[in-house]
Specification:
globular; alpha/beta; 11 helices; 8-stranded parallel beta barrel; TIM Barrel
């Protein structure tokens, strides 16, 4: 029997997940380095369809300018993706209240991701978890190392806060986050590998799944992040979008290294 969505999202013993991330701006998938210098990477619905056929376990769509520009995430994109794929997908960007999440989940999204809104109103995590269930709530955290400490950044990485990353993640979990999506801004787009030290430190403290993001550039980086940091899922964008790493081959290599994945 297949695990239920709740079991799949909250049981840390299930197979490791490979998650392509599609950053969406003005209806197109884009990718940059360290959150800037964006370039086009294709149609998000078409990419989603390709990934669903080629072994991706889940997808994440982030409307990367929705919060910054005070816009709501594009509901029509969610509906179009839901019609085309049969794997779970998360949508984030511009979700500020229960009504925003409700329309996205009713439009076909499996989970919603909140970032800036959660920091500005931590009670939103509680409200979403109580209304929809913890398994539907992903708290995304963009972090950057400054003077030896990791700090949370908002609005697509544009705004530094005084909130230390580890403290915020612990609070998010206590309020009802079902998963944490942690992106190292220092590693993002560099293809030099994930921030293994930070990810391991955070993962060892968490009781909910941790998704690693930022820095994937080779198959070895995925092997390292699962073996050394022990994360539950690894997310990447450009290496998948531009065909530098093919998910079926990646999963075969992970399996060859004793890492449990769905082939």
């Amino acid at each position: 029997m297949e695990p239920s969505l709740t079991d799949q999202f909250l049981d840390r013993g299930v197979a490791k997940r490979i998650i392509p991330c599609l950053d969406v701006k003005n209806g197109r998938t884009v990718k940059g380095v360290n959150f800037v210098d964006l370039r086009d990477a294709g149609d998000p619905v078409e990419l989603a369809w390709q990934y669903s056929r080629n072994g991706a376990d889940e997808l994440v769509f982030l409307d990367i300018t929705a919060t910054h520009e005070r816009r709501k995430t594009m509901v029509e994109l969610v509906k179009a993706v839901a019609r085309e794929i049969n794997i779970p997908f998360t949508i984030g960007g511009g979700i500020n209240e229960l009504a925003d999440a409700d329309i996205l989940l009713n439009s076909g999204a499996d989970k919603i991701s909140i970032n800036s809104a959660a920091v500005r109103n931590p009670g939103l995590i509680n409200d979403l978890a109580n209304a929809f269930g913890v398994q539907f709530v992903v708290v995304a955290v963009d972090t950057r190392l400054i003077d030896g400490r990791n700090y949370v950044h908002l609005n697509g990485g544009r705004l530094k806060t005084d909130l230390e990353t580890e403290h915020w993640i612990r609070e998010a979990e206590s309020r009802g986050a079902g998963e944490i999506l942690l992106t190292s801004m220092d590693h993002d787009g560099t293809k030099n590998g994930f921030d293994l030290q930070l990810l391991k430190k955070i993962n060892d403290e968490l009781h909910i799944p941790l998704i690693a993001s930022g820095g994937a550039g080779s198959v070895e980086h995925f092997i390292d992040v699962f073996k050394e940091a022990g994360v539950d899922a690894a997310l990447a964008a450009s290496v998948f979008h531009y065909g530098e790493i093919l998910i079926p081959e990646l999963k075969k290599e992970l399996n060859n290294h004793g890492i449990d994945v769905r082939l």
